[in-house]
Amino acid sequence: MSYNCWFECVRGCGRRYSIYDVVYRCEDCGGLLNVAHDLEALKDRSAPEWQALFAQRTHSGPWPYGSGVWGKKEWVCPQIDDANVVSLGEGNTALLHVEPLGRALGLPDLWVKQCGTSHTGSFKDLGMTVLVSAVRQMMADGQPIRAVACASTGDTSAALAAYCAAAGIPAIVFLPRGKVSTAQLAQPIANGALVLALDTDFDGCMRIVQQVTADHTIYLANSMNSLRIEGQKTVVIEIAQQLGWEPPDWVVIPAGNLGNVSALGRGFLMMKELGLISRLPRIVCTQAEHANPLYLSYLTGFKEYQPVPARKTLASAIQIGAPVSYERAVKVLQAFEGIVEQASEDELANAAARADRAGLYCCPQTGVALAALSRLVERGEILPRDRVVLISTAHGLKFTGFKVGYHEGTLAQVVAHHANPPLELPADCATVRDTIDQAIGGGLKQAA
Q1: What is the pTM of this model?
Q2: Is residue 68 part of a domain?
């Protein structure tokens, strides 16, 4: 069976494009585009056959199917030649049953999807492998693309730079100067991208990159390009597979530019349409109070929407006041009985620290999701019997300044309830023993 996918307008006006067309919005109505698949063709395999195939490919050797994304190639971007796939072993990340944290939150069946253990340390790898592979295919077919560009709060730029470096394609990165962590800034620099630090915020960078990529020889890599979303949807296919194809009751995710929300919905809807799951979960989008346009719109039943000036937040990767995928995200939230919640700076920092005490190492964006989850449990909207999967979007090592600041007590608007700074002591064994006894109880035996 020949599988196929294409771009089509999210507003249902009927306009279609090839996935190899350099186009990001419908030329008739201005709507964003989604990737659509020939689902009838995909029904040539039964649900158990797809499940078996995905299981067989997980961590397998044959190129490129060992990737967590390309193991679902027929569902993602079937037209790309295997020789043009650019993969860095993305996906196949752990789904952890975090019992100590779950008990603390009153959720015995709490799971955390560790997307931050992918190659560049965030879920952005899942979408970037698809987009850069498509660009490589386009270039192989003779399209005159000179470079790929993105605006970023950090993680997108890291993924773009790494995958373009692997493909031998120039990458251009627009970052808001002074508003990304040092670790995030170092990644695109190390991978050889042209890094442009602009005196603006993410939304300003996004405006400029859209103007620059009006030149069709520079391809846009932000999530308004739905090729990214096709890769990111595989995270929920992995979750379903890891849970024995029984979907959770809730999926909770931090939300910035809102492409990932759309991706989760598309993945679940596709699995249900093809019979791999029998029901849909509910979705919770979480935002920082300092950058909360989706939350404010949710309070009006999505009847009103207004971009906001995004204020500085510890959750810098979602410090976005004008998310480009708002329209897509609202459609998903309405289809999934979704909830939008927010978290303060104090809440997100302490939620991340509490999760770290349970063995995780959470980025501040994951802290937003955890804090919002705690609010929903306290209000009784999420019940103790519910199975909840929380998406951890990036590795905490990208945000070392946030971690150090928390434990040193220097973060603005944060009272650190779980601070654990190092104790500075003289090199004296008796003093060390006394300090340990006070900290953990009991008594240390004297050395023989």
Answers
A1: 0.93
A2: no
Edge-first strand order for the sheet with 171-176 is 194-198, 171-176, 147-151, 218-220
Which residues, listed in sequence order, are joined to residue 400 by a DSSP beta bridge?
none
Domain containing 312 equals 95-120+229-408
| Selection from 3, 2, 30, 35 nearest residue 16 by Cα | 35
Asked whether residue 422 is assigned to any structural domain, the reply reads: no
Tens digit of each residue's pLDDT (9 = 90 or more) over 177-205:
988 888 888 999 999 999 999 999 988 99
124 in Cβ contact with 317 (< 8 Å)? no
The tens digit of pLDDT for each residue in 61-113 reads 789 999 999 999 999 999 999 999 999 999 999 999 999 999 999 999 999 99
Neighbouring C-beta atoms of residue 393, cutoff 10 Å: 28
pLDDT of residue 445: 60
Sign of CA dihedral 216, 156, 392, 243: positive
| pLDDT 10s digits, 121-146 | 999 999 999 999 999 999 999 999 99
Residue 248 resides in a domain: yes
Q: Can you give the CATH number for the domain in which 292 is found?
A: 3.40.50.1100
Total tally of structural domains belonging to the chain: 1
Position 347 pLDDT exceeds 60 = yes
Instruction: Please identify which residue in the block is written with the tokens 């752990």.
Output: 94
